[in-house]
Amino acid sequence: xxxxxxxxxxxxxxxxxxxxxxxxxxxxxxxxxxxxxxxxxxxxxxxxxxxxxxxxxxxxxxxxxxxxxxxxxxxxxxxxxxxxxxxxxxxxxxxxxxxxxxxxxxxxxxxxxxxxxxxxxxxxxxxxxxxxxxxxxxxxxxxxxxxxxxxxxxxxxxxxxxxxxxxxxxxxxxxxxxxxxxxxxxxxxxxxxxxxxxxxxxxxxxxxxxxxxxxxxxxxxxxxxxxxxxxxxxxxxxxxxxxxxxxxxxxxxxxxxxxxxxxxxxxxxxxxxxxxxxxxxxxxxxxxxxxxxxxxxxxxxxxxxxxxxxxxxxxxxxxxxxxxxxxxxxxxxxxxxxxxxxxxxxxxxxxxxxxxxxxxxxxx
Amino acid sequence: xxxxxxxxxxxxxxxxxxxxxxxxxxxxxxxxxxxxxxxxxxxxxxxxxxxxxxxxxxxxxxxxxxxxxxxxxxxxxxxxxxxxxxxxxxxxxxxxxxxxxxxxxxxxxxxxxxxxxxxxxxxxxxxxxxxxxxxxxxxxxxx
Amino acid sequence: xxxxxxxxxxxxxxxxxxxxxxxxxxxxxxxxxxxxxxxxxxxxxxxxxxxxxxxxxxxxxxxxxxxxxxxxxxxxxxxxxxxxxxxxxxxxxxxxxxxxxxxxxxxxxxxxxxxxxxxxxxxxxxxxxxxxxxxxxxxxxxxxxxxxxxxxxxxxxxxxxxxxxxxxxxxxxxxxxxxxxxxxxxxxxxxxxxxxxxxxxxxxxxxxxxxxxxxxxxxxxxxxxxxxxxxxxxxxxxxxxxxxxxxxxxxxxxxxxxxxxxxxxxxxxxxxxxxxxxxxxxxxxxxxxxxxxxxxxxxxxxxxxxxxxxxxxxxxxxxxxxxxxxxxxxxxxxxxxxxxxxxxxxxxxxxxxxxxxxxxxxxxxxxxxxxxxxxxxxxxxxxxxxxxxxxxxxxxxxxxxxxxxxxxx
Lengths: 364, 143, 409
What we know:
The structure holds 3 protein chains of 3 kinds.
Chain A: H1 9-18, H2 21-29, E1 31-33, H3 42-62, H4 72-81, H5 86-113, H6 122-144, H7 149-163, H8 169-177, H9 184-216, H10 222-231, E2 237-239, H11 240-265, H12 291-299, E3 303-304, E4 307-308, H13 309-325, H14 327-330, H15 340-363
Antiparallel strand pairs in A: 1-2, 3-4
Helix pairs in contact in A: 3-5, 3-11, 4-5, 5-6, 5-11, 6-7, 6-9, 7-8, 12-13, 12-15
Chain B: H1 3-32, E1 44-49, E2 57-63, E3 66-72, E4 78-82, E5 93-95, E6 100-103, E7 108-110, E8 116-118, E9 127-133, E10 136-141
Chain C: H1 2-10, H2 19-24, H3 33-37, H4 42-45, H5 51-54, H6 63-66, H7 82-90, H8 93-99, H9 107-113, H10 115-121, H11 130-134, H12 154-162, H13 165-168, H14 177-181, H15 185-192, H16 201-205, H17 218-222, H18 227-235, H19 238-245, H20 250-254, H21 283-314, H22 320-339, H23 345-402
């Protein structure tokens, strides 16, 4: 039955049932442009890889973690001290969370500066921004789960800011906290968000994002396009399989090495169990990815004209976020010309703002 | 590519890949194997056998990270309190002669309800629950 | 006058009229001050009026009749008569029962036994009377933080006179007690930690019956809190010796006002108290040196464990249980310091040995934690090598696929 052109028996069994030929054909044809900025193409994959690490280590941690105020801290302590390699799994989970968010931001800014959001990739951008928001949600909800002093008060401060949003603030804060204060209800709720709600939404959006990327292929930056147009040549491409993929594997292995080293040399600390009745320790601040808006809010005076300072800050951030989300749409003018300098300028300003204010928030 | 180099490549890639895979999977499987003490004893602690403590005596038991004073007042009645004095954190003890809990550091006295009778302590001692399971004494946190 | 007497006898406060306050509150300066202050006075809260101390009639608006000497108005009460004036009510048990049943009524009796009371009886008006400590016109309850006799403010109140060399000139008394007390561990507990149970002047000297404790009763006074020390001291060889010498017990080594936290330097070294009496070669001197060495050895062992545990913790190892065990070790150090009061080395050796055992245990835990850290780093190196080898393999694979040329479309 087998002929020279048919695949061997065992592959044929799967082929008959799953019909993978079209996928294999697609992958064989997928290419990645090669130019000076190819390096930035890796960051999407790294973010994805780190997310997979989070799912795997998170699932392992789920085998021992208990989401109640009486047991959460103790269960994490148990994992770190008694469970074999518990220290490793836990530290990898905490470090990878931070590296994933950093990688997501790098990925986003590389898309901005290389203009990969241009038509027809607007939906890819939108789904990506949503994924970034989900990643921050993962970070915020996960941060509370060890139930130590820093987590508890950072959550308190964070949900207080949510309460300051106009109109919906109070309801929003109650929804997040599972009540009027941060407590056991908040912990259970955040746990539910962290292991069920957010992963579910993220999986769907991730599939959408990846499918859109496959559909539209990899975009090349304008400079490379023009350079090769002048030469009269098409932009060089490398096959995704195996060339780019092997390189990506190298990057992922490097990431694993970094994660392992961080976990072994700079393990994530346990902290002190949260005591809701104790006063907030001085200098409480959220995790680094929330530092810039946090510090900005601290700088705003308590009243700006007739409005409360915090309100002004939050509304400002809301508008800024909205403006950033619809970037692909204002990046082109009515004639369809690109507002190159505007976008680059906005990107540079945003990066500068985030870096500066995060640093200030950390050291002040 | 020539044979020896291809073999070298195969070995490096295959060997490295397997070794790295093992170094990732080994901890993961070890992690899933439950440790000897299967869970953190947060909410209750075994304080020995009923016969170990005579009536009108007390002993200190470790509860998680802090000491707890277990007092057997009569044949059938047991009490337990945090053994950390609320004045300056010394460890208290049971005084058989006066049926009171005493702190040697500055002569603080508590009654068998944990309330302050005399001396510098500002607050009462936190009470714990005691249950007898068979012949085992179990101390647990009050809900 | 009639109404004033009735109010006084039956203690029914006539809240409606108080002409004293009504007139004096609209006057100025010296005459207005008492009326303004009285709003905060506890006597006002119970419905008493100026007339209840100063005499006169609170229901009469006309100054002539309200402040009529014929009708009992006394005006400013002379200092020598102040205690009796207060005692008129405050020593009357059946009267006080109507307002504060549990309040003591023997203050006056105590005051008469005190140095202040005795000197006042001889006509010395410089000594403290009721109003000097409790204030006048705005007398607050002792538990009110603004009262001059609230535990946190009492030392300053005593010091107003007793720390003033100009005021105290003529009396054969030192004036450095407050300054010394301020350096003490009791003051730190009181003023900085807000521990209301910490002793201040009245705790040892009494309040109304204030006088210094007799030399032989010093240990008993300290022993109201420091029970274990007093017990040991009473059974120790020092007690009969100090009693025979007329030396004041605890004060000999610990001072009376400037009581500092005790340390090993009191047993041996340049500032040792033992060497003030005991020659280095005498039995006492040798015992002191030995006790100092025992305690120092435990301190050193605990410090060594602290260091290794801090090192382990700094590297990220989990050593919280060992750190708590150190707490027990430190308790043994305290017990050893207490045992010094038996003044024999065997008594000190016991807690020191227990503490040393704990320190050895925690040191072991720290050492194991560091070993585990090394173990982890070794494991990390192994996995990094595997990763590096794989990355090398991948790189070579890429090169072999692409040859030495750049990939083309």
